[in-house]
Amino acid sequence: MRHVLTVTAACVLLSACGGSGGGGSTYLGINDYALLALDDSDADGVVSSAFQGVASGNASEAGGMVPTSAASDLSLARSNQLLRGNFPEITSGARASESATVDCADGGSKSASISVDENANSGTMSLTFNQCNQYDTLRDGGMTMTFSGLGDTSSDMQVMFSDMKTTEGGETDVMDGDFRIVSSSDGNTHTSTMTSGRLNMVSDTLGNTVISNMSMVHVINLADDSYSLNISYDLASDELNGRVNVATPLTMQYGASESYPVTGQMVISGAGGSSISLDANTGDLSTVLQTVFNGASTTAETVAWSSIDNGDLVAVGGF
User: Fold this and answer.
1) End-to-end C-alpha distance for the chain, whole angstroms
2) Alpha-carbon distance 235 to 220, whole Å?
3) Mapping DSSP to helix (H, G, I), strand (E, B) and coil, where does residue 289 land?
């Protein structure tokens, strides 16, 4: 599940079951998948998929359109750079609104509209691709970004994908759904909150993946750069052949520049009360206690983080 998603917020989501995406396509919803019965036969694979499903930064694979840094790094200037990378016709400087439609180098077209008050650091930007073929990449669909209060102490960014298709290297990925990142700083801590109602990704090779009911809260202690992470989300995919819930009942606490938590617990829950819990407090930053309950019996073993994580949890911790 190497392509996966940075996750998402608000409510153009499909409610309980499947429904139409923003561009009219139909996507499987979280409840179109049955809860997965968890046991120790493939616990490592389930854990790895759960991490990959929420790994931050990979939404850029939906066309290179989304800033992949943490909310603290988001700025209107970066958004303008993103816009002008595709639309150099739209000039810099304060403005009320601008729009442009241009042909793509190898066929199709792309359009942009932007309404921004650079002095107030707020606005809306929409990008639409119509079979836009250039630089060996074909894009179709669109996205909308809404910004407010993008300053040193607070920021708010919402992104909506609408059937955003990208074909590159013979493979097509589709993103549909939304997410929101809200950031604030009080001088002592910096808090970034990422939320999502629903985000679907469909891949030629991996099928459908959907994340919903996402909340991820990342708090940095500015005095020593230690940080904490709390997450909760539902994940379903064709690769898992089911759905699970992922949550941190005990906050994951990280030292400065550490890839894995010093303390904390993450629990993946499935059918019939089955679960996989990961307890970080082993006394060794490179290992975690993995406990599997299949609904009737429990097995536990200490494993290396690297055996169940391909860098995705590291990416989540760094969001």
Assistant:
1) 19
2) 26
3) strand
